[in-house]
Amino acid sequence: MSRSYGSQSMVGPLKRVLVRGPDEAFGTADPVRWNYTSQPDLAGARSEHEALVATLRDSGCEVIFHDALLPDHADSIFTHDPVLVTDAGAIVLRMGKPQRRGEEAAIAATLDNLGVPILATLEDEATAEGGDLLWLDHDTLAVGRGYRTNAEGLRQLTAVLRPLGAKTFEVQLPHAGGPAACLHLMSLISMIDDDLAVVYKPLLPVPFVELLEERGIGLVDVPESEYPTMGPNVLAIAPRRCLAIEGNPVTRSRMEEAGCEVLTYRGDELSLKAEGGATCLTRPILRG
Q: Which pLDDT score is estimated for 57?
């Protein structure tokens, strides 16, 4: 019987993915409370999301909607963050951003209904968000240690993954914009093939850059001018087949020079105002 879940990769062909459409909570979000650049236009965000979903479906991906009722959870459109899906089931995380607490149980229920077993749930004071969790290969998870993922979250993740034969690598994140800002590890790097990543190198710690180089992972550098517009936030639909936000021409050109096909989506309302790109808007359930 073919698998219906398992995603210990950032780049394997995307087969099933969980998304959530923008709702009233997103359209009425207070920019100060949610740290958005301004209040999104809901109609515009919905149109952009529909186009993103169409691109995923055109690429052969089964798109599943997470429609649980989540009032006052503007960030719940970013389905990547509350859970990590392994080959043995889902690890339910615990959000580091207090306003997002409650998303975890809701997305766990959706996955359970889809037949994805719950492998573990982070407990007590542990925090970890999916945007800090980057598979370098099937058995190596880079974990951004910052304001959203704490030391206890890293410890519990390490313990859960050990029986699966997977290990973690801690990546210390910079203070940057502080606790209110959304700086995830994946704000700085996206894997687009087993041996290629898009990176904003100035904010990456030296030991992590050295690890990437030791593994023979080529680096597509994002210029400083394209970091604020999410140049590093790229979803691999398949190896070197990428979905990125419109714009960022230098980054796009560099990816294409590295042999990538780059698809784009408009994200003025959906992404740029709310600090979440293509990776954030998608939770892979199954990769080939």
A: 98
Dist. CA 101–CA 123, nearest whole Å: 13
Cβ-contact 160, 119 below 8 angstroms: yes
Q: Are strands 167-172 and 234-238 parallel, antiparallel or unpaired?
A: unpaired
Q: Which of 134, 63, 75, 136 has the alpha carbon at shortest distance from 103?
A: 75
CATH class in words for 14-287: alpha beta
Residue 158, judged by CB atoms within 10 A of its CB (0-12, 13-18, 19+), counts as middle
* Helix H or strand E encompassing 250: helix 249-257
Q: Is the pTM of this model over 0.90?
A: yes
How far is C-alpha 190 from the geometric centre of its chain's CA atoms? Answer: 9
Look at the block and give the residue holding tokens 């429609």: 67
CA distance 201 to 207: 12
DSSP letter assigned to residue 97: S
Q: Which amino acid is at 69?
A: L
Q: Which residues of 118-145 are buried (b: 16+ CB within 10 A; e: fewer)?
A: ebbbbeeebbbbbbbbbbbebebbbbbb
Is 42 strand, coil or helix? helix
pLDDT the model gives residue 1: 57
**Side chain identity, residue 202:** P
Which of 274, 229, 267, 272 lies closest to 74, judged by CA? 274
Q: Per DSSP, what are the bridge partners of residue 62?
A: 16
Residue stretches of the chain with pLDDT short of 70 = 1
